[in-house]
Amino acid sequence: MIQVNGLTKSYGDFPAVKGISFEAAPGEVFALLGRNGAGKTTTIEVLAGFQRADAGEVRVLGLDPARDRRGVRRRTGIMLQEAGFFPDLTVAQTVDSWRDFTSAARPTGEALELAGLLDRAPTKVRQLSGGEKRRLDLALALLGRPEVLFLDEPTTGMDPEARRNTWDVVRGIAASGATILLTTHYLDEAQRLADRMAIMDHGEIVAGGGMADTLAAQAGRVSFELPTGLSPGDVPLAVTVAGRVATCRTEDPDLAAQELLSWAAEKGLRLRGLEVRTASLEDLFLEGVDHA
Ligand SMILES: Nc1ncnc2c1ncn2[C@@H]1O[C@H](COP(=O)(O)OP(=O)(O)OP(=O)(O)O)[C@@H](O)[C@H]1O
């Protein structure tokens, strides 16, 4: 559904995307992650046909978006970071006007219901909150029953309930066979939603793969307060210490915690603040962008 091979894009002398490659299959949610300026939006804009790549090959639904922008646009939905709405139209009028130039469009009520915005149908766009505007954007992106959906930071500004609603919608669309390319700064969102991901930094992919496999291959951590009077060398596992908090990075955090607890019991020590954590996407993200 999406194939990117060696995509390169510069603005003047500035290389924003430096030869990245990835693919996304039908029914897959693919998350493109990375800090501000990493090149995520540029990548989406090239895929959606808004920008031309300088080099590399890009295919969406087997089409080249630079040559067949119309064909791509007809079968894809897009939610960019800044939407341009007419402030004096109501929510329903906005959707209606988009329906006029969308083929096989959903009924207005259905699109609004999907985006959780039905009760705001008669409200003027200028009166919507930031999160509600994102929901209107989502309704428009879903209007043409897209086979590929590009979502650039879709839940920014949404309250927790609206975020969850959006996740359910995204999962539903993916379950119906569509492919979703998502950028987000909420790593919990990526971890919950995405089947696969790529972390970008300075225009390059620095880590990526299947979400579950990649996280499973990452080390977890066990941390606790180092008991008074002890030094890191007294602990039976290799730890790093910041302040009084000792941290052990390990592939098996449960086993490490058991070893620590039996050692503490034997010595009559109490391990305060004991925390056992499997690897999170946040760990991987920080490691990826730090080492880049
Ligand atoms: N039209 C433009 N002209 C010049 N430079 C640009 C333009 N658009 C983006 N850039 C630069 O290209 C780099 C990549 O921008 P891009 O918007 O793709 O990053 P991003 O990963 O989407 O960031 P964010 O998380 O902040 O949305 C940035 O350094 C940005 O300043």
TrEMBL record:
<dbReference type="Pfam" id="PF00005">
    <property type="entry name" value="ABC_tran"/>
</dbReference>
<protein>
    <submittedName>
        <fullName>ATP-binding cassette domain-containing protein</fullName>
    </submittedName>
</protein>
<dbReference type="GO" id="GO:0005524">
    <property type="term" value="F:ATP binding"/>
</dbReference>
<dbReference type="InterPro" id="IPR027417">
    <property type="entry name" value="P-loop_NTPase"/>
</dbReference>
<keyword id="KW-0547">Nucleotide-binding</keyword>
<dbReference type="InterPro" id="IPR050763">
    <property type="entry name" value="ABC_transporter_ATP-binding"/>
</dbReference>
<dbReference type="InterPro" id="IPR017871">
    <property type="entry name" value="ABC_transporter-like_CS"/>
</dbReference>
<dbReference type="InterPro" id="IPR003593">
    <property type="entry name" value="AAA+_ATPase"/>
</dbReference>
<keyword id="KW-0813">Transport</keyword>
<keyword id="KW-0067">ATP-binding</keyword>
<dbReference type="InterPro" id="IPR003439">
    <property type="entry name" value="ABC_transporter-like_ATP-bd"/>
</dbReference>
<keyword id="KW-0046">Antibiotic resistance</keyword>
<feature type="domain" description="ABC transporter">
    <location>
        <begin position="2"/>
        <end position="227"/>
    </location>
</feature>
